[in-house]
Protein 1
Amino acid sequence: MAAEQPKRPAIRWHIAVFLAPAVLVYTAVMILPLFNTLKLSLYTDVANSQVFIGLDNFRLLFGDPRWAGQFWNALGNNVWFFVIHMLVQNPIGILLAALLSNPRLRMRAFYRTAIFIPTILSFVIAGFAWKLILSPLWGVAPNLLDLVGLKSLFQPWLGKEAYALTTLALISVWQFVGIPMMLIYAALLSIPDELLEAAECDGVTGMAQFWKIKLPLVLPAIGIISILTFVGNFNAFDLIYSTQGALAGPDFSTDILGTFLYRTFFGFQLQLGDPNLGAAIATAMFAIILIGVSIYLFGIQRRLRRYQF
Amino acid sequence: MSTARHSPAHSIAAHAILIAYTVIALFPVVVIVINAFKSRKAIFRAPLSLPDADSFSLIGFETVLKQGDFLLYFQNSLIVTIVSLFLVLLFGAMAAFALSEYRFRGNTLMGLYLALGIMIPIRLGTVAILQMMVASNLVNTRTALILVYTAQGLPLAVFILSEFMRQVSDDLKNAGRIDGLSEYRIFFRLVLPLVRPAMATVAVFTMIPIWNDLWFPLILAPAEETKTVTLGAQVFIGQFVTNWNAVLAALSLAILPVLILYLIFSRQLIRGITSGAVK
Amino acid sequence: MTFKHMKLALLAATMLAPASAALAQDVTLTIESWRNDDLTIWQEKLIPAFEAAHPGIKVKFTPSAPTEYNAVLNSKLEAGTAGDLITCRPFDASLSLYEKGQLAAIQDLENMKNFGDVATAAWSTDDGSATFCVPMASVIHGFIYNAEVFEELGLTPPKTNDEFFALLDKIKEDGTYVPMAMGAKDQWEAATMGYTNIGPNYWKGEEGRLALIKGEQKLTDEPWVEPFRQLARWKDYLGDGYEAQAYPDSQNLFTLGRAAIFPAGSWEISIFNEQADFEMGAFAPPVQNAGDECYISDHTDIGIGMNAKSANPEAARTFLNWVGSAEFATLYANSLPGFFSLSNETVEMEDPLAKEFVSWRESCKSTIRPAHQILSRGTPNLWNEMWNVSANVLRGAQTPEEGAATLQKGLASWYEPQQK
């Protein structure tokens, strides 16, 4: 792509013009404030002034069993949260997209529109709606299960350590499955007809066609979805905060990095906020996400590229 | 799966799956909306039945509408979302073009720099952002929110758009250059129209978190005049947490405008995402 | 407008008053608060009363949700955009704001003389030299019951613990009503309305609380474990799925008439009056043996102070002084029955339930919640841990002894007097 640029003109001002607005806004409103925050992780508050203490906050975070315990608990929960997303959201997204991409299917505009609706709702609404539905008092969920004769299956899911996190992950999937569906749908539609016709001539049809031809071709889209989900999940906060509160009950079983960070950074009830330690957690989250994204960019995406046209 | 194109049995199965999922997707919304129109006792007695003459009640809406100006909140949300979206798409596409089109020193570094923002929630910079807005006298203005959301949306926009722009054919651009078009014209006239589907994808990803954000309106613009719909709804929910009539009404009022907007634009949205892909 | 001009304008305003009152620049005070439940009461009763008596000062009440209040307030204080008046949480949360220079000292306000030491302790420095918030109200814990259900089943409010459980058994046997409305999901319900509600009778109120601060008692001692054992017994009497039952669920369960007893804080009174269509009564936490001295949790819960960086300090002080007055005390206590004035002035209350709660002050000894003073200064925070542990005990996820051990271990990890 750079073949047309070998002669090196003096200064190519247009590059600066193209980059300037984005870089300026982004640097001023996002990077500088974030940098200030991350810097805090190397300081501590002594009598209302910030004192440089090097990596002591990280030593506390990973060395003190109480903080480390909370951190690993939150990280473990976060991994589970992400795993559920990958195991449930992507297959459902692919299935729905595959069904919708059939040009002869009637009412597909309706389905597409309806299935995307939860995605446009806010966490406040989604979280609250599900909290009401799953509430043992209101009885919508038990009544529904009763209709199909499965009332005995009802559990106060959000109040049980064993189920709460999975339930919340499924609520999150419910809300966001529209995005993978749409992206995969678009990718499926962009597969050239000739390719499919050629496959049919070779006798590759139906399920075999899907597995052997279509799926490999939409893998890059699935890759992008996965990495976006990864970043989104490890930054997630709102849904758990609005349904379970900042203490992420029961017994911290739904505590993820976002809620742990919030509690530490801003404080909660009588616990005072500790911006320095909070910043240390934020830095750790940043590192985790950076590693994940790097693995994707340098390990996985390179391989996926080969399938692209 | 895609064998549905040949057999009616498969087509029925496809419809069954899609209908089942549609029900799951819409059920919570429907439950909220129908119960918002019922009396308190009826909400608890029969949460799944439609409101009838006996149980119909608008008391929740009355409580909510007495408390705030939902139309104004809605207007605020709309302005903030649309302006931020416009800026994200414009600035993002320009930067993505620079990164994908030109080879210059620091290109990769700049790309990584702009991608950093995807990985770290901007919420962490809250205190510094607030101080900056105070210093520039922007607290309680929509401008403050627009600036934050633009900055927040840019990294992902640049990331996705530069992927797509790499796929735009060089021949086309070079033909433009031979015709004497300036780099700006090449960008606006030739490249932008070609990446429209990608722009639509970015628009969706950018728009949803902006519309639904609770945090920055709460910190940067909590004033009555600049309150957004999401913040308004949250305040109601906090205030009437025991009064389910009011809570359900507030939720319905927060859902309906987005829903209407979405139904109006969904066709464009989907065409955007899939255009260029349509065979 | 320079200061001189301002003076001139004020002068002119006083000379031409009242016709030109509107010409003078009104000062607007903004109140930061977590009490978004009280929005209408401030808008319709308290603020008009103040504004009528103090022309030239306008007041705006701008609450945020209780769960977000600390984060929002701290961010705003750091950036200098917080309101002039700040609603104060008791003890250390506000003390730290004062130490950072964000709350102003106000002990020299004239009406501070209306408050005793107990009332101001929650918002004073440890040595008592400075006070930074005007005490507004305390809340009392106890049990509210559905009087119609009690009549129907022929029950009378219990005095002792045995009577209490006998009563719960009867309601359970009858089967029509859920004996007690309480859930474990929101955690603080179990801590405030459970553990610190019934606890003072076991740790003997202030005696135990101070012994804990001095390090003479431990949370694993009998008086601190026994309330957890009692709490653990409650789970047989709660509604189906109480593990996922949130606080509003409990409130609705009770006000819809489906539950007989609500372990309560007195702040429920105004909400319940509005939503329940049946007679209610209240009883104090039962004692262990008939004739025992009784203790109640009478917790200094809410005060109001002044942002040290307020642009209108004089007006803000005027307002705070008014909050310290007998007029405010009466107005507040009657607009929000269940928030009991901390003023020494006698406050006449009309609400029968509120009267019942406050009458316990005569017969029982008052104490505040044990985790609030000094003991929640470190990490892990004792009060937050109490939320989690109380909910765990109520769900049966931890035994009372395990729960107490968790609390003690956390406290001893940073609190020196407990490390011996």
Protein 2
Amino acid sequence: MSSSVPSVGDVIVHKEFAPITRHRLALYCGASGDHNPIHVDIDFAKAAGFPDVFAHGMLVMGYLGQALTDAVAPSRIRSFSTRFAAITQLGAKLTCEGTVTELIEQGGEQRAKLALTTKDQNGEIKLAGEAIIAL
Amino acid sequence: MVDQSAVGRAFTPVTARVEPGRLRFFLDTLGETNPVYRDGTAAPVPPTYLFCLEMMDATVPFEFLTALGIDLARVLHGEQRFDYHAPVVIGDTLTFHPRVASVTDKKGGAMTLIVVDTPVTNQNGIHVADVSRTIVVRNARPS
């Protein structure tokens, strides 16, 4: 991140991602160790009451983390949290954003609090989260 | 249905090593091209990777679900939190200590929220992170 101190209201995180495919979910199943079949096996998903497989919440949080560390060095992140507000469907084209909401002094250092969102192409919020970063 | 008696229950600790090959698979899967993660031996791990490491090397996959009698098909991920206390880099060996922190019924028992807190220590005994997951169990409705 730049050496200048951000101001409240600054959008310092912004990244868009390619649509989510079945192939991506299969790769994430293997790469993440999360072998829950609900994300890759349509028969299992239907038996569980869903119309189709859907994205792992942690894949979507992984994209949000990628957007965050494009703007902030990983070593500066003190906390990162999110609520999974809605299921992310196949084909979703995600946009991740982060806005500075507060500048604070904590743990003997200057920090910023960021409000984070991940939305799909219809503007529906999939993830609503927060990060605290050291400045 | 899971009740308050589950609070405080601990599960088998998981030890996992940050291996370069499987970390590369994770980075490639996310289309992650940030050079900071490919910077040789001292590269940090991405912010959500601790969650993956615990699942990858668990001897009993989804142990907290089976131990509490929860059907995997009825579970959704509600919230996830990471607090980072010290760096985690390629080559580290981490140990995860999961424990049920709370159980909360919602919507008249239609859903149960279960919070599992997992302190993470490294090969030197340093407390590097706390990971907290909230799962949502969609309870079967009595017919």
